[in-house]
Amino acid sequence: MKIGLVTPYVYPIPGGVNEHVRFLYENLRLRGHDVRILTSSHGLQRSSEGDIIRIGKGFSVPSNGSVGTITLSPRYVSQVNAVLARERFDLLHFHEPFVPFLSLVVLHQSTSVNVATFHAYAGFSPAMELGKRTLQSYANRLHGRIAVSAAARHFVDRFFPGDYKVIPNGVDLGRFRRAVPIARWQDGTPNVLFVGRLEDRKGLPNLLKAFRLMRKNGIECRLLIVGSGPQEREARRYVMTRGLQNVEFLGRVSDHEKAQLFRTADVFVSPATGRESFGIVLLEAMAAGVPIVCSDIHGYKGVVQRGRQAILTPPHDTKALCAGITELLANPELRARMGASGQQRAEQFSWERVTAKVEDYYGFVIRRLDAQGQLPPGFAAKVPAAIHPSGQEPRWETERS
Q1: Rounded to a whole number, what is the distance in angstroms from the first to the last CA of the chain?
Q2: What's residue 74's pLDDT?
Q3: In the CATH hierarchy, which fold is given to the domain comprising 2-170+350-371?
Q4: Where does residue 188 rank: exposed (0-12), middle (13-18), buried (19+ CB within 10 A)?
Q5: CB 140 within 8 A of CB 133
Q6: Reduced to 3 states, what is the DSSP secondary structure of residue 157?
Q7: Of 293, 114, 316, 326, which Cα lies nearest the Cα of 194?
Q8: The predicted structure's pLDDT at residue 399
Q9: pTM score, whole prediction
Q10: Which has the closest alpha carbon to 39: 74, 86, 1, 73?
Q11: Hey, which CATH number is domain 173-348, 3.40.50.2000, 3.90.660.10, 3.55.40.20, 3.10.20.310?
Q12: How many CA atoms lie within 13 A of 240 on its CB side?
């Protein structure tokens, strides 16, 4: 099939959604599909780079305790129509389809099969509540809906009820298995690793407080902090004014170095305060064989299993966070058991498996439309045959809140 992956976030700027789009693109290509990525530009990027098609300009805006993107263009409709007429997509796969405005314009003008993946989880969203009536007509144009987790499904279903297939994010297992630990931090001092944007919802201040408590208790370890963001200055000030030793701010790192850091870590900590739909960093830690201490929040429960790959602690609970990290540092056998369990569980989230599930869902949606006589005029490929051991149509379990 000819497939277009639509991301409202400027590709390939790092981020969870763009990472998802990248690996889905690569693995769909490996499965024989002709794939393009539709995105916007940010700065002086070319309008077209190989299989990347750029329409409009992306601008950063505060969103859900983080930074999001809106895309704008004075000629959106004509630009989108020109791209769709030229590319003739059989299927368009929208990632966060309601983020203004690129996805909305493409969805409105589409004559293809339209599938969407919803990545976000935010509890109550005033913007979604206010906009749901306006956006309902766009939601009605979706032929298939995917959510990356039960938390993401529950969030979007509150505003746009319907059938959602839960298909998780994936992880590049090979990258973490091939990575080599960084020698400079293999000096006998245990390493505690944090990876994430330095903003309120990632909970770094709680980890710094827990680390300080550990130091007061005489526990020798090193804290490696990967990421940047609006809380960096505050975090550095906290470390300096409290005289905390063995805290390393590493800033943003390459994918290669990040994998090395995961392999260097003795414990990975994600003290998120909430509003996480999935937790890709947990997958990365498991792929690297690192035991985890993380917050007991909805988005994380579908990724790790309590007591098997991770110790879960209440959000904002500094003492519990300290106790969880301390328990793992004091027990090498527990670390080894949790790390091995994590590597085994990460197999379920390989991009090969995730892409196969997405491709199967494409086929399910297309066959359903074909059976109803509702295939849109832009679909010109062959209708995929159902693949099932019994030779019967597989039963898809779409979930509803």
Answers
A1: 32
A2: 74
A3: Rossmann fold (3.40.50)
A4: exposed
A5: no
A6: helix
A7: 293
A8: 43
A9: 0.88
A10: 73
A11: 3.40.50.2000
A12: 7
